[in-house]
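Table S2 (continued). Query chain:
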Amino acid sequence: MALLDEIKDLVVRGHINIQSKYPPDLAQKPGVEEKVKEALDQKLDIGDILRKGLIGGMEVVGDRFSKGEYFVPEMLFSAKAMKAGLELLRPHMVDQEAMTLGKVILGTIQGDMHDIGKNLVGMMLEGAGFEVIDLGINTAPEKFLEVAQQHTKALVGMSALLTITMEKMRDVVQLFKSNGLKNKIIIGGAPVTQEFSDQIGAHGYAPDASQAVHKAKELLGI
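Corresponding output:
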């Protein structure tokens, strides 16, 4: 198997490195970290390692999740494996801006302290080739505005797990409109629906991390 295919397969299997015990049949065997280092030592093209290896693997994972063949735990392992490889590539990505599909500003809305869903979306977006600016949890509308003003072409993603906090998403949309920002806004989370997205004037809704990647590409015209 060619090295890039090995990296892709290891991302799909969620095997991070030789110390990783998951999946059990790959324990004590080289993982994504070792294979990416090997690819760098062989001076393989950075873009190929990124797109054919890491991103290629996450595309398979996203497809399997959509088909119900993978679930959140498998996605998390794969996303962590991809991220481990990505961290090794970053110092070698001279023109990182040109190697990304675009930027996504991501945060859990004010009053909400849940971040598992947001983190999974962030890792899936990175796995698809986006640069993610993670604002963390309990993010005030004003913070979304401030960062979006610095990145006017970035997509803005908001997450909420509580019905009492999801109304804050409406405040963000209104704040962007009153300040003339054109950033596209995508929302998601357990209580969030397409109907709510339409009501508040968001540009998109995604029910899960895999769909968030598809919707992000759609909204940015990719």
